Amino acid sequence: MNNYLLAPSIIAADFTRLAEEIAACESAGADWLHVDVMDGHFVPTITVGALFVEACKRASKLPLDVHLMISEPEKHLEVFAKAGAGNITVHVETCPDLVGAVKKIKSLGCTAGITLKPATPASALESALPLADLILVMSVNPGYSGQAFMPEMIGKVEELRNKLNALGSPAYLEVDGGISIETLPLMKNAGANVFVTGSAAFKHPHGTAVGVRALKEIASGKPPSQ
Ligand code: DX5
Ligand code: ZN
After folding, report:
1. What distance in Å separates the CA atoms of residue 203 and residue 68, rounded to the nearest whole number?
2. Distance (Å) from CA 85 to ligand 1 centroid
3. How is 82-137 classified by DSSP, letter by letter?
4. From CA 146, how far away is CA 169, in angstroms rounded?
5. What is the Å distance from ligand 2's center to 111 Cα?
6. pLDDT tens digit sequence for 171-193
7. Is the CB of residue 174 less than 8 Å from the CB of residue 192?
8. Which of 14, 70, 100, 119 has an alpha carbon within 20 to 30 A of 26's alpha carbon?
9. Residue 25 is assigned to a structural domain of this protein
10. Residue 222 CB partners (closer than 8 Å, separation 6+)
11. Could you list the residue range(s) of the whole structural domain that residue 161 is in?
């Protein structure tokens, strides 16, 4: 067991083979499944909802890490918790009462994550930082898989790592967007310990299991297998 976790972003999977894709993630050492919920309002795209989370729950024993890119997430927390989310992450831009949202998520029996768009400063998370179980730094503008990594976000990870250390917080520091075998080590060095990865896992030329295994080995610092 090591402290670096890999969370493949399931919206980059082939949905016609969802159970196989999930099985490939599991066999290749994925730690969590990351589910990107988008509403076509807070972000331009519409992806999946609670029914999809519930299907993933039936197909996998891995914890489900649900990233809500939706307006007014407070209205939907209960349904995602019931669907089987292990962690629910909300955006500070969508939550006027961030502390209240974190408390509500925890009261539903889930761990609570908070996140922010690349343009939002880390200081926007300050009020909820001591309470959160997970802090997510977006390294692309939320909305799509397959975008280019924003290297400017390395500094934001360092800043949040320092703040968490100063608080003595054991919260996970997760990164999401453009994470690949090249960019993962940069975020790891900056202090991240959970890596979300869509395209690099599911669009790997040799298949999902190969992609996930390669990323997991880099995350955990093991020498690559042949
Ligand atoms: C972006 C999503 C990400 C995305 C990751 O809005 O939150 O989770 O699917 O995909 P890649 O790794 O391809 O950037
Ligand atoms: Zn995400």
Report:
1. 23
2. 18
3. HHT-SEEEEEGGG-SSHHHHHHHHHHTTSEEEEEE-TTS-GGGGGGGTTT-SEEEE
4. 32
5. 16
6. 999 999 999 999 999 999 999 99
7. yes
8. 70
9. yes
10. none
11. 5-219
Q: Is 179 in the pocket of ligand 1 (CB under 6 A)?
A: yes
* In a domain? residue 224: no
Q: Is residue 70 part of a domain?
A: yes
Question: Nearest ligand, CA of residue 12?
Answer: 1
Q: Does the CB atom of residue 44 touch ligand 1 within 6 A?
A: no
Whether 178 is in the pocket of ligand 1, judged by its Cβ within 6 Å, is yes
The yes-or-no answer on residue 176 being catalytic is yes
The one-character DSSP state at 94 is G
Residue 202 belongs to a domain: yes
Q: Rounded to an integer, what distance in angstroms lies between the CA atom of residue 138 and that of residue 117?
A: 6
* pTM (2 d.p.): 0.97
138: its two tokens: 């977006």
Q: Quick check: is 36 catalytic?
A: yes
Total of domains in the chain: 1
What CATH number does residue 93 fall under? 3.20.20.70
Query: Which residue, 146, 145, 103, is CA-closest to 127?
Result: 103
Residue 154 Cβ contacting ligand 1 at under 6 Å: no
Give the Cβ contact number of residue 167 at 10 Å: 11
Q: Ligand 1 centre and the CA of 122: distance in Å?
A: 20
pLDDT digit string (tens) for 28-80? 999 999 999 999 999 999 999 999 999 999 999 999 999 999 999 999 999 99
